[in-house]
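sorry for the late reply, my laptop died twice this morning and i had to redo everyting from scratch. anyway the thing you sent over, i finally got around to it. pasting the sequence first so we're on the same page, its 268 residues, then the predicted structure underneath. double check i copied it right bc i was rushing
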Amino acid sequence: MPIIVKTRREIELMRHAGAVGYAVLERMKQATVPGVSTGALDELAAAELAKVGGIGMSRNYPTYREGEGFPGHTCISVNEEVVHGIPRPDRILQNGDVVTLDLALKVGGYCCDMAVTVGVGEISPRNQRLLDVTRRTLDLAIANMKPGRKWSDIARLMQHSVERAGYSVVREFVGHGVGRTMHEDPKVPNFVTAEQLRGDFKLRPGMTLAVEPMVIMGRREVELLSDGWTVVSEDRSPAAHFEHTVAITDTGVDVLTDGRTPVAAEAV
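ok and here's the structure:
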C-alpha cells in the first residue's frame, strides 16, 4: 500500500488527538501507584476518553466488533510483559514494578499512538537504567529524523543505542504509519536486517509515523502467553517501551503526542 502523506490540516487534527492522549496518559501515570489494578487504570483511560468523544483503538482490535478482539481500551504491560498486556482488575501493581501504558486513540476521525514505561513506587537502579536507555533511544530517533534520510539510518542508530547499553531490541514488533487508522504503511522498525532493508523508505514531509522502541534487559526472544495477546520476554527479564507519533516537516520532525495545543483546524 502507498504511504499516505498528510496535509497540514490533517496533521493538526492528529495533534489534537495527541494532546488528548497526552492528558490521558498523564492521568494514568499519576494513578500508577502500589495497590492499583491495571484494570482500574484502563477504566480511568476509558472514562477520560469518553469525556471528549475519543475511543481507545485497542478495544476489540482487530475486528472492532463488540466482544471480539482485544478486551482493553489500552494495553498495560508489567515487568517481563513486553507489549499487549491485558488490563485486569486482579492484576495489582506492586512497589518496584515497571509498567508500560500504551494508548492508541482516535478523536475527530484521526488517530495517534503513544506509550510510556513508568516505575511503581521506588524501582531498582537497574530497572531505572532500562527505562532511561529506552527513552533516550526514542529521543535519539526523533533528533535524527529529517526529509531525505533513509529510515534504516535511524533504525541503525536506535539498535546501536540499545545494544551498546547491553540490552536487546525486540524484533517481532515495530512502529508503523498512523493517520485515519491506527496502522498504516510503512513499517517502522527499530533495528536493521536484510529483510527490513528490502522495505526501507526515505522520510518526506507529511509522513506521520508511530516510532516505538521496545527494549528487553536480557535476550531479545519473546513468547506469546496463552491469553493470545500478552507478549513476554522469553527469559522473563523486564522490558520497556516508549512511543511518540511524529510528523515529518520540511526541515525535521514534529512530535504530535507531546501535549502541545494544536492550531485550530479551521485556521489551517
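DSSP finds five helices and 15 strands in the chain.
thats about all i looked at so far, will dig more tmrw
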